[in-house]
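[step 3/7] inverse_fold.run input=structure_tokens len=153
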């Protein structure tokens, strides 16, 4: 049982990182593109440095958002995939997308600033950031494909 729980926790952490890092990179690139559109000079070196800094400093924020979104979503996906085991990966991948979309939308209602994650201000950015949940959802489903909880006899 301990090994099973440890495997679930590890798979969850990998799923969170596999989502939060690309989401952080995407957030950075969307923001830098908006600055370029305003006429700001953004060199490739500045783009790379800003991306690395955002992974380090915004990445943990994105990871926290992802954890909060994935916990209930993956619990629901786990239950749904019990009824449709052959659709386990797509169910979890879709749950990851929907979870992030819901998290970004809810944050817009409860945070003091208009949008905590700037790239999620418009529909294209919201969809792009939410789509990173596909990665984490699919990885979690794949990594936990053989984990089963049995009823004690």
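[step 3/7] decode complete -> sequence:
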């Amino acid at each position: 049982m301990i090994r099973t729980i440890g495997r679930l926790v590890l798979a969850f952490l990998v799923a969170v990182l596999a989502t939060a890092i690309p989401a952080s990179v995407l957030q950075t690139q969307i923001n830098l593109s908006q600055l370029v559109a305003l006429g700001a000079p953004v060199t490739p070196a500045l783009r790379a440095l800003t991306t690395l800094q955002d992974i380090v400093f915004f990445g943990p924020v994105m990871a926290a958002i992802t954890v909060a979104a994935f916990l209930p979503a993956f619990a629901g996906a786990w239950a749904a995939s019990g009824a449709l085991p052959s659709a386990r990966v797509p169910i979890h991948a879709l749950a990851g997308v929907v979870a992030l979309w819901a998290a970004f939308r809810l944050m817009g209602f409860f945070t003091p600033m208009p949008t905590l994650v700037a790239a999620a201000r418009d529909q294209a950015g919201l969809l792009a950031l939410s789509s990173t949940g596909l990665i984490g959802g699919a990885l979690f489903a794949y990594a936990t494909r053989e984990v089963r909880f049995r009823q004690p006899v």
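[step 4/7] annotate
The chain has a mean pLDDT of 89.
The first helix runs from residue 2 to 37.
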